[in-house]
Amino acid sequence: MTPRIDSFWLEAFLVVAEELHFGRAAERLHVGQSPLSQTIKKLEKEIGAQLFDRSTRRVSLSAAGHAFVPEARALLHGLQLGVERAHAAAGEIHGTVRVSFSGSMNHDTLPRLVSAVAAKHPHIRMECTQRLLSGDAIRALENGHVDVAFTGLPIASPLIATLPLAEEAHYLLCSMDHPLARAGRSSCSFRDIAEESFICTPQHQGSTLRRVFDETAQANGVSPAVKYEVADSSMVMAFVAHGLGVALIPECLCAIKPPDTHAILLDDVPPLHSALAWRKDNQSEVLRAVLRCAGNQ
Predict the structure, then answer these.
(1) pTM of the full structure
(2) Which domain holds residue 42?
(3) Among 86, 113, 134, where does a domain finish?
(4) How many whole angstroms separate alpha carbon 50 and alpha carbon 184?
(5) How many domains, the chain?
(6) pLDDT tens, residue by residue, 179-216
(7) How do strand 124-131 and strand 95-101 relate by DSSP bridges?
C-alpha cells in the first residue's frame, strides 16, 4: 500500500536533517517545536522506521534517515516539477526561485534580473535571501540550498552550468588623503601598490575577487599585507573610507563607492568575469524562465 505522506512532512524532515536540532528547524519552518516533533513522528509512523536518533543532548540521523534523505529530496523535487509543468501547460509559470548573490557586487545585476522576471512572469517569486561569496554559493547550489547564484568565473564544479554576464576592469580604492589620490592618479600598476595594507574578502569563502588579488600578487612576485578580511563589499569600502587600508574592487562598485574615496584603474590586473550559475540537472520550468530573462538582458 502506498504511504500517505504530506509534502510538508518531507520538507520538515529535510530541514531537521540539515539542522539536527528541532529548535532551529522549527524557526526555519515558522512552526512550533512541539508541532514539528509531532510531524516527524507522523512521518516515521507512516514509513514504519525511525528516522532520527534522539537523546536529551543531541539529534542525529538514523540509518533509515540517512537512506531516506535523497529519496525525500527527489519526491519534493518531482512534486515541484509536476506543479510547474501543469502551470506551464496552462500558459502560466508559477513558483519560487532561490537566488544567491554577493551583496553590493550585484547592486545592479540583481535588481535588473528581478525586474525583468516580474515584468515577464508575475507569478514567479524571487527569493533573494542568500548573500554568499562565490565558493559558498557554488556549494549551496551543489547541495540544493539555492537554485541560481550570481558568481565569479571560472567554476570548477562539473555539476554547474553558467551564463556569462559581465567582464569588468579592476580598480584600487583608496581614501581621498592617500598619496595616489592627492596626486590625481587615474591608473597605476599592481606593483605600484605592493607595499600597501589591503582590505580583502576572505580566502576560505571562495571569493573570486580574492582569487584575482592572490593570483595577481603571485604573478608579480609580491606579497602585499592583508590587514583586514571582510566578507561584505560595502563594508570593505567603508573600511577604506575610514583610512584603514586600500582595496581591490571591480568596476561595478565604483558607482556606489563612498564619496570620500578615490578609484584608480589597475591596468595590469586581469578583468573579473561574472556569471549566473545553476545545477545542470535542475529541470525546473521556473528556473528556465528566469534564465531566459537573464539571457535577454
Answers:
(1) 0.74
(2) 7-86
(3) 86
(4) 69
(5) 3
(6) 999 999 999 999 999 999 999 999 888 899 999 999 99
(7) parallel
